[in-house]
Design brief:
The complex is a heterodimer of chains A (183) and B (123). Chain A is an alpha+beta fold and 183 residues long. In chain A, 37% of the residues lie in helices and 26% in strands. Chain A contains six helices and six strands. Chain A starts with a helix and ends with a helix. Chain B contains four helices and five strands. A five-stranded mixed sheet of chain B has the order 2-1-3-4-5, covered by helices on one side. The chains are: A alpha+beta (183), B alpha+beta (123).
Chain lengths: 183, 123
């Protein structure tokens, strides 16, 4: 993968597969501490301790079409190659929290990439999930919550051309405003 | 700082969408399904989806439902996009880059002609 935003998309897909109804993606950059931290929190079916230990093994997957799962091992490797850390907390029936930390200035840290496209892919792809994105740069936070938007739309599809245009502009300006903290 | 769009803007968007809906009075007619498993994502599925959504917005296309699916076990053909028109069999396309996606949107979704060279499966 070329972007951290693609990893976020991939891990969030796991949350959807675990039947999560509420998924929150958090990306926090703190340049003072030289730390980029990202997490995906869901209320999906979770994993037991035994499975949790083995989940970072590429030969573990819940998929039935193929016996190899690379999403989590790839994300873990991306963090650990940047003096970072990776951890998963999970409780069966409660949910899962995946957290990755990166040394922001590390030469091997891949770019954050297109966070907007990642979010829009998830919103459109899984309209029944309640999505929240928190993106913060040095405490300057953009919080996106799709609940008020869906409420306002009242049955108009997210793939309506006008709605797509709105989502694009709304998310792009939110991300841009958060980034203004280090501009 | 750029001006942040607000929910008030969304109200206008909704009113316009409703007007168009009344004018057309049709339910979702075309379904587009894109594979977004790890392999699909690495192969560029997010950019493919973005191209499809940008096309819908740019061409002002109504009645198109877009959804995702996870890995379907045809890794070497990713990104995979399926187009389903009404009750017709679904057409699966393989190796759908953003450019191919725009071609499928124009030729299949708008003009109704299957883009044969990228078809991998008909269901």
């Amino acid at each position: 993968m070329k972007e951290l935003a693609l990893h976020l998309l991939d891990i969030a897909e796991n949350s959807v597969a675990a039947n999560a109804k509420n998924i929150t993606i958090t990306v926090l950059l703190d340049t003072e501490q030289d730390l980029l931290q990202m997490s995906i929190k869901d209320d999906g079916k979770g994993m037991n301790a035994e499975r949790l230990i083995r989940i970072t093994d590429p030969f573990v997957t819940s998929r039935t079409t193929r016996k190899v799962g690379l999403g989590i091992p790839l994300f873990k490797a991306a963090a650990e190659s940047c003096c970072g850390s990776f951890d998963i907390q999970s409780t069966p029936g409660v949910g899962t929290l995946v957290t990755a930390r990166f040394q922001n200035s590390h030469i091997d840290r891949m770019p954050l990439g297109d966070l907007k496209s990642t979010l829009i892919s998830l919103l459109i792809g899984y309209p029944d999930v309640h999505w929240v994105l928190k993106y913060g740069v040095n405490g300057n936070i953009f919080e996106f919550d799709d609940a008020p938007i869906k409420k306002e739309l009242e049955g108009i599809s997210l793939t309506d051309p006008g709605v797509l245009g709105f989502l694009n502009d709304y998310i792009a300006s939110g991300i841009e405003n958060a980034q203004a903290a280090i501009a | 700082m750029s001006k942040v769009k607000s929910l008030a803007d969304l109200k206008r968007v909704r009113e316009e969408a409703l007007k168009k809906q009344e004018a057309k009075n049709t339910a979702s007619r075309i379904q587009i399904v894109i594979g977004m498993g790890t392999v699909g994502i690495v192969a560029g599925a997010r950019e493919t989806l973005k191209a499809i959504l940008d096309f819908i917005a740019k061409e002002d296309l109504q009645d198109i439902a877009v959804r995702q699916t996870s890995n379907i076990g045809m890794d070497s053909w990713e990104p995979i996009v399926q187009v389903i028109v009404d009750d017709e069999p679904g057409i699966s396309y393989g190796k759908v880059t953003a450019e191919v996606a725009r071609k499928i949107m124009k030729e299949h979704v708008i003009d109704g002609n299957i883009v044969k060279e990228y078809v991998i499966e008909i269901q």
